[in-house]
Amino acid sequence: MNQISDTLSSGLEDYIEAIYVAHINEASLKGAELARKLNVSRASVSEALSKLVAKKLITYNSYESITLTKEGIELAKAVYNKHHILQNFFEQILDIPSKEAGENACKIEHIISQNILNKMVEFSEFCQKHESFITEFKKEVTQNATNIINRKIS
Amino acid sequence: MNQISDTLSSGLEDYIEAIYVAHINEASLKGAELARKLNVSRASVSEALSKLVAKKLITYNSYESITLTKEGIELAKAVYNKHHILQNFFEQILDIPSKEAGENACKIEHIISQNILNKMVEFSEFCQKHESFITEFKKEVTQNATNIINRKIS
DNA sequence: ACAAAGTGTTAGGCATGCCTTACAATAATT
DNA sequence: AATTATTGTAAGGCATGCCTAACACTTTGT
Fold first, then answer.
1. Distance between terminal CA atoms of chain A?
2. Chain A partners of B126 at a C-beta cutoff of 8 Å?
3. Cα A114 from Cα A101, distance rounded (Å)
4. Contact B16, B23 (CB under 8 A)
5. What does each C-alpha distance from A134 to A89, A126, B114, B139, B142 come to in angstroms?
6. Angstrom distances, CA of residue A144 to CA of A98, B54, B130
7. Cα separation of B74 and B81, whole Å?
8. Do A119 and B96 touch (CB under 8 A)?
9. Angstrom distance (rounded) from CA B134 to CA B94
10. In this predicted model, what pLDDT tens digit does every residue of B76-116 receive, in sequence order?
11. Which of A94, A107, A112 sits opposite B104 (nearest CB)?
């Protein structure tokens, strides 16, 4: 209904997040490059950027690089933080390989509640203060894996 | 492209999961009831059921109740298990209220990788063997919350 | 300066999934 | 049996997001 809503579809969140990553790397970013980064067509990027401009989250003129507005930065930062909380949790606590953790974070970041993310942070911090716990967990998991392999062999 | 693909869109997964829940409760389920359960129109259910029939996951004739095929049960069970792993993890480990845990599980179950779910199970089991850890975590979290409240007051 | 390479947009489509409206068919109640 | 309630379906739309093809514009390099 409203063009300038305060929530973004998960698709648009992906776009603004990618723009934000370029922003914090102080790299200039054009539509074509964004298309390559997100593995979508230039046409799709063109549509998405129009929407983000309409929502006043970015500034953009053809053939120039994309700029986040103040509100855009805020919103992007929020998405980006969610991503990192998830990625860290999967990697540090659940011992998931970085690539897989990232891929899952990318999808889940759009739908998970803030409350769960907060608890994930608290839990991670708690685990850091009791580091042996996670160390033990990882040890046990590899042990389990070894058992499974041995079981298959024998 | 292919009508009888082995993967389901998240929408169809929701439908088949709801059908499965009725199935394990040995409750008969008609389209109209399913529509009420999922908060969608009867028309949407009608469309979805046609797709599930085309994929041979359910058996269905108008005005009769919906039946899962063997393959349907297998697939539904997989979705349902994912849901439960997530719900349990959120509730037991992260101390999230049941309702919120369920709502999040409903959405995340469609996109999370099996590997992460497996690790969640292992982690939960590990925590059960060291129950004091989670107890301590919960204690600390409530303590933090109390601190925040007191900070706000003073 | 001009051609080639790169970039952006528009138009027309596809797929998902949801809706309402209107109508059809069956089930239940009196 | 007839009326009412319930259930199901078809048609026509809306929104999201993705695509290709074709065209337009800009930048780069010779």
1. 63
2. 136-137, 140
3. 18
4. no
5. 12, 11, 21, 19, 22
6. 21, 41, 17
7. 11
8. yes
9. 9
10. 999 999 999 999 999 999 999 999 999 999 999 999 999 99
11. A112
Look up residue B154 and give its amino acid.
S
Q: Nearest Cα to B14, choosing from B42, B43, B41, B34?
A: B34
| Secondary structure in 3-state letters for chain B | CCCCCCCCCHHHHHHHHHHHHHHHCCCCCCHHHHHHHHCCCHHHHHHHHHHHHHCCCEECCCCCCCEECHHHHHHHHHHHHHHHHHHHHHHHHCCCCHHHHHHHHHHHCCCCCHHHHHHHHHHHHHHHHCHHHHHHHHHHHHHHHHHHHHHHHC
Pair of tokens at residue A71:
């509100």
Q: Is A130 on the interface with B (CB under 8 A)?
A: yes
Between CA B50 and CA B2 the distance in angstroms is 14
**pTM for the whole structure:** 0.84
Identify the closest residue of chain B to A118 by CA–CA distance: B94
Per-residue b or e along B121-131, where b marks 16 or more CB atoms closer than 10 Å to that residue's CB: ebbeebbeeee
Answer whether any strand C atom is within 7 A of the Cβ of B57.
Answer: no
Given an 8 Å threshold on Cβ–Cβ distance, is A137 in contact with B120? no
Residue A24 has pLDDT above 90, yes or no: yes
- Across the interface, whether the CB atoms of A122 and B144 are under 8 A apart is answered yes
